[in-house]
Amino acid sequence: MKKSEKLALLGEATGSYTLLKCDFRYNSYPVYYYIQAVSDRFLYAAAEDDFILDGFCVEKLSALRSVRPVDNLIVQINRERELLKQLHAPTLVLDSWQTVLRSLAALDCFVILEQLEPAEEEAFWLGKIQSVGASSVRFLAFDGDGVWQSVEDIPFRRISRITFGSRYATVWQDYLEVKTAQG
To answer: Range of 33's domain?
Structure first.
């Protein structure tokens, strides 16, 4: 699929009830998105998972293999239930990973950074943005037991996807902020 075709579909779907089935080269399964914004480098979307919204993702447009609108009963139900009325998408600047991450740092929320390619170097970080430089982000992540790790510099070239506002990230944020406040 040509970049111009992808951009046209993404642009038409932006801010609407058009659910898009997106196939990325690093996923073996499609993801379903309500597009919030698009640039020539990134797409910013609300993730839909069987009648619920589960946070927001920013993905590289260059990794998008194909995209197509979905028109099925799930979309009809989402529309009738006014699923998108509960959506409050913060504004992100989609010029570069640097501007995206600076936008997210200002929100002061837990963020998931994923490196999804090459497959043998996949990585997953969940935590907080400490600062954003010219070519990397200083990130404070925690492990699967909720133990904070050392601050790490993650080069932008390693980032494939950024997720925030998901159930997974917000539950961890709620738990760790209470645990930290209690000492």
So the answer is: 1-89
User: CA 132, 15, 88: angle at the middle one, nearest 5?
Assistant: 60
68/96 same-domain check = no
Query: For 131-136, what is the mean pLDDT?
Result: 98
Q: Give the sign of the dihedral formed by CA 41, CA 45, CA 24, CA 79.
A: negative
**2 pLDDT above the threshold of 70:** yes
Rounded to whole angstroms, the Cα distance separating 112 from 94 reads: 17
CATH number, position 177: 2.30.30.100
